[in-house]
Each structure stands twice: as C-alpha cells, then as structure tokens.
Amino acid sequence: MRAVLLSVVTLLYPLMVYWGLGHAEPRWLALLLAGMAIARALTTRDKVWLMAAGGALLLSLVSLLGNQIWPLKLYPVLVSLLLLVVFATSLIQTPTAIERIARIREPDLDAAGVAYTRTVTKVWCAFFIINGSIALVTAVWASEAIWALYTGLISYGLMGVLFAAELLVRRRVRARHG
Asked: Model-level pTM?
C-alpha cells in the first residue's frame, strides 16, 4: 500500500509543485521532495531508486537553502537520467532491461526475441534522452505551467503511446515469426 501511495505521489509531483507555488515558498515545497526521497529510500533496496532518492535529497537541500524553485523542477530530469543509465547499461551488461521484463512472461525467450528486446531497450533509451532533454528545457527556460504540463501530463502520455505502439509492434512481430 505504501509503495502504491508513493508511486501516486511521485506521478503527481509536478502538479503538486505547480499548485504549491501559488501557496508556499519553494523551501516548503522542498520538504515534499525530501519526504518522497526519504520514503523511497525506506521502501526500496533497488540501487537505482536509492540513487534517485539521494539525488532528490540533494535537490531538496539546494532548494531549501536557497529558497529556489529550479532544483525542484529538475527531479523529472533526474528520473529520466537514471532510467537512461539503467537501460543503457543493460545494453552492455546483458540481459537488457526489456529482456528481463519479457522473461517474466516468457522464460524461454528465443534468439529473435532477445534481439527484439535489445531493439526495444534502445528505443526506450532514445525516449529517456528526449524526455529528459525536454524536461530540462522546460525546467530551465519555460514557465512553471509549461513545465508542469509537460512533466506532469504530456511525458506520461508519450510513455503510454510508446508502450502501446511497442505492444502493437510486438504482436505483429510475433505473428510474423510464429
């Protein structure tokens, strides 16, 4: 239950920051990110999420000390960067991230399936580069409203579109390869 609540708060983070800007100083909003980071650190053993928690705590501290909003807006960039590192690293240290996910449903994945999951992992790497770059641009140069719209809605929609497109392509590839 705690993990679900933490996931919901993480997904809603950009919108909460945007709403909070009209009601509180950035230093108080930094406590939201710090709380998320501490909760994440206490509920995971995964190295990536622990690194995200550490990065989030650092961003919170910078925001808290300087009463600045920009460090809080960098959290989605940090998440994209960490996911890129996980996916890209898995291209070198196999199996790939997508292959590991695929093997949950299909433990005896054949060579064609392994090659396909490698390609999908590369596509997700490209997505995280683009998504993180747009999140960075909106954090640095766009208004808080544009930043919140992109990081709190559009980026999730794009992830959903990519996931759905991959599902359709996978069905077509499976049908072709039997």
From this structure: 0.90
Residues 6+ apart with CB under 8 A from 114: 95, 99
- In this structure, the number of other CB atoms found within 10 A of the CB of residue 147 comes to 25
Mean local confidence (pLDDT), 96-113? 92
- The dihedral over CA atoms of 170, 98, 154, 85, expressed in degrees to the nearest 10, equals -150
DSSP secondary structure code for residue 170 in this structure: H
Distance, CA of 159 to CA of 109 (rounded, Å): 25
Evaluate whether 56 touches 37 at the Cβ level (below 8 Å).
yes
Q: List, for residues 155-174, the tens digit of each pLDDT value.
A: 999 999 999 999 999 899 88
Largest CA distance in the chain: 59
* Alpha carbon distance 133, 121 (integer Å): 18
Cα R_g (the chain), whole angstroms: 18
Are residues 55 and 82 in contact, defined by beta-carbon separation less than 8 angstroms?
A: yes
